[in-house]
């Protein structure tokens, strides 16, 4: 159960994307960087909606 959350950590696709671009695999690198940026945006939107929903109950 703990390892299933690792897919939500954008660090690994970011590092692999940069390494791929540096090594010359530009298409694969940009695909991984796009995946990581979509993960970051999704996490930010989810946290924002959660804070909007429970803003009054945090105090």
Automatic annotation (TrEMBL):
One of its GO terms (molecular function) is transmembrane transporter activity. It is a multi-pass membrane protein. Pfam families: ThrE. Keywords: Cell membrane, Membrane, Transmembrane, Transmembrane helix. Belongs to the ThrE exporter (TC 2.A.79) family. PANTHER family: SUCCINATE TRANSPORTER SUBUNIT YJJP-RELATED, UPF0442 PROTEIN YJJB-RELATED. This is Integral membrane protein. It comes from Bacteroides reticulotermitis JCM 10512. The lineage of its organism: Bacteria, Pseudomonadati, Bacteroidota, Bacteroidia, Bacteroidales.
